[in-house]
Amino acid sequence: MQERKTEKVGLLLGLLGVICFSLTLPATSVAVPYFGATIVGLGRVVLAAIIVAIVLFMRKEKLPTVRQFKSLLLVSFGAVLGFPLLTSWAMVSLPVSHGAVELALLPLATAGFAIMRAGERPSLKFWLSSVTGAIAVIVYAVYLGLGQLHLADLALLAAVVILGLSYAEGGQLAKELGSWQVIAWAILIAAPFFIIPVFLHFSMEMLYAPITAWISLLYLAVVSQFLAYVAWYSGMALGGIARISQIQYLQPFLMILFATLFLGESITWFTIAVAIIVVTSVIIGKNTTVTKTQTTAVPSKALNK
């Protein structure tokens, strides 16, 4: 009973994280024209690092061990450097719906890396549901005329791969280090290296950007870069990396919904039909059996923080 309750909490936290992440591309699309890809991709990390440093100092958190630091480097490379920078660059030329479809492949990348990094062994039913969801979003991409890959497409696909690795590594590390501590330390490790590039790309004209652009940048720094990861890593620590990763199939359609609401992009019945197929695969996938090579109990720190 307690295990089932823990799984449900993990699913809810994972869903909350996905909802927060779903506003990332729309917010990036709004901010990039005024601040540029470097400021949006790296500057948000510098802003987030200020908040993170204060929180870590006030709570007097212990420094990560050498082994944990190595894992944090992988998390930092994917979630703090690669994904923000690559998506910011791609959104200069791509609409949100385009990016949303390609990022829908992220659950497969996460589950694949989970096998290598966390020792999880999803069942055949899990993989069938994952492939079904992937095929659905590929058909959707072809329907929108996204068959040819451009540099921006390759950037998004690279972002999927490195973020999948980051998610798998971070979800495993959250069990021992604590959920929010994973992304907090990853941000703090990377931020010092971003200060100079951000300074060189900053201009006084950016101060006169509209309020919507500033709100978008602050959202990316505070929510997308930090708070959303707190919920996401907590969910994976409680519910399992491969299973919680299935919730990400909802993300592209939530992105399209938010793009419709805030950016005026249109939504079609075909989009709704594909969304239903993908949601069905999520429901099936989260109820499949996922085994581990070793059974690892979730420490109380991961549950309480």
UniProtKB/TrEMBL annotation:
Localisation per UniProt entry: Endomembrane system
Any one GO cellular component localisation term in the record: membrane
SUPFAM superfamilies reported in the protein's UniProt record: Multidrug resistance efflux transporter EmrE
Transmembrane segments: 9-28, 34-57, 69-90, 96-114, 126-143, 180-200, 206-232, 253-284
InterPro entries referenced in this protein's UniProt entry, alphabetically: AA-Vitamin_Transporters, EamA_dom, EmrE-like
Topology of this chain in the membrane: Multi-pass membrane protein
Annotated family: Belongs to the EamA transporter family.
Source organism, top-level taxon: Bacteria
Domain EamA: 9-139, 152-284
Designated name of the protein: Multidrug transporter
Keyword annotations from UniProtKB, A to Z: Membrane, Transmembrane, Transmembrane helix
NAD keyword on record: no
